[in-house]
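I hope you will forgive my troubling you with a question about protein structure. The full record is reproduced below for your convenience:

——
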Amino acid sequence: FKMRYYNADGGEAEMCGNGIRCVAKYLYERDPSTRGPDIPIDTGAGLLRCGVTLDARRRVTHVSVQMGHPRLTAAEIPVEIPGVAASERVLRQNIELGGRAFEMTCVSMGNPHAVIFVSPDEPGDLRALAEQYGPSLERHAWFPRRTNAEFARVRSATEIELVVWERGCGITLACGTGACATAVAAVLNGLAPSDREIDVHLPGGPLHITVKGDLSGVTMRGPADEVFEGELDLAALLARHEARHEAKRSSRAAR
């Protein structure tokens, strides 16, 4: 199976941690051939394997995803910072956004993330910070492919509060790859342990992330719920889309 994911702005993203859980649930419940030890799904970030947790009715309640290894060098993310070599990690890098100084740690989970940890003593709402500084971080000149922006607060060794400004979307209720990148950044900075499940609390609910001690892999566990079912006339939708584009082309040609 192959998954392709598009953001609200129409841009294609390499991966979506929440999206792949939904795809795994859909496949397991509708295609008996997927009901093996795991469900392999090909993504822009590589082949990822998903395991499911079932209720008494054999319906999927949670999905665990082997998210692969985090990419940590500037070249892999990618991020281009003056004075930072392409082979270096980007940890606690000073960055100024809107006249305020922050420290960020950069991680790729197949897509780029810039994680900022806010002091536990600092008052204020993480969402307000994300809304204020997320847009400028997403489009900062250092990120050639833009970046997802994480604003996090460590509650304890195994609990992190997180709000994500997603590349191409803005504020979202949850971000699976963002939760993974934040957990990795916490481990790298000595704020959280490896080889233990870290609860990442997002506005839409918690995700549970485990980072291997040798950084060879990250596991994400979280819920998947069916919200509604509908039908889409794809041919008619594409026809309307092409008609709108043709009207725009004609208008430009007339001018």
